[in-house]
Amino acid sequence: MSRAVYNALLITEDSDSSDFEAEMSAFNVCVRKIKTFNPRIDYFNLLDENEFIRRFRLKKSTFDKVLNEIVDQIKNSTDRNNSIDPIIQLLVTLSVASAGKIVKRVSYALAFLSSRYIRLPETPEEKMELKVQFYGLARFPKVIGAIDCTHIKLQCPSRENGELYRNRKGYFSLNVQALVNANLEFMDVVVRWPGSAHDSNIFANSRLKARMELPEFSDCIILGDSGYALSHYLLTPLARTTTNAERLYNESQIRSRNVVERTFGVWKRRFPVLFFGLRLKMETTMAVIQACAVLHNIARLQRDPQPPDDIENIKQLLSAEISEIEAATQPQINSPAQALRNALVIEHFSVL
């Protein structure tokens, strides 16, 4: 028996805890400290509505709705080690974009809601409602959506494939395709292509293209910029205009298509991390982007106000980013799609 253990046994049982710890220390015997946990701040009840929106980018009622949607996916099975409540997990995810199990878990849970909140119109009534909304913008008929891509900055993904993610502006990114409606809501989002991928190539290999070619969307049109190939369902601007009807067509097409650029601006202002970049693993990065798209749609449906811009000059930075998008023009060839566009110019825009 060691001297330290022998001396410890000499301590009487009626010694109080403080004497016991002092005597143990004197005999060089380790005593395990009791774990202590700092109380977690209840920001949901502590902050007023305006401050909560500023810090967490959503109204309290919207936050509560989102929490109820994902609580079963993110709650811990036990309370061991003072496990983190779902409400704290969601607050952490909305307030910071850092690596960690909490951000990953919540982002995947939110991304799982995509099928509910990001979808194409299915019924004739839904399609007609979208057409009426777009026609009210600039009198362009049969339009259900506008399509474009935006770059989300990344850290260099890997040495082997890093250059695939370097875009034409010189930084690493994911090129994210989105189809939006007139209410600035996402109807389709593709988050998997590297920054070097061209917008038209992303669309050509997307599920959206396959669906637009089905009979269910035979009487529907989407609008894109000159970076996309002209087709009977995707109309692009005219390269040259000579008549008043052609000028009206281009003006209406551009004004109607502008909703997608506005959507990107509103989206990145609500979640500035999408503008300034993500430093996460690729799988988590994709989940975060998809989760932000889901949250954006929920916020639009709940009529959440736009959070204040705490980051100086972010509006100017976003405007500069949008104005710098210069897509390569697709070659204009004689085709049935071009004939359809010409007929639309003559039959509709010549009488406006």
Automatic annotation (TrEMBL):
Residues 147-297 form the DDE Tnp4 domain. It comes from the Eukaryota. Its cofactor is a divalent metal cation. It holds the Pfam family DDE_Tnp_4. InterPro entries: HARBI1-like, HARBI1_dom. It is found in: Nucleus. GO terms for molecular function: hydrolase activity; metal ion binding; nuclease activity. One of its GO terms (cellular component) is nucleus. Its main location: nucleus. Keywords: Hydrolase, Metal-binding, Nuclease, Nucleus. Belongs to the HARBI1 family. This is DDE Tnp4 domain-containing protein. It comes from Macrosiphum euphorbiae (potato aphid).
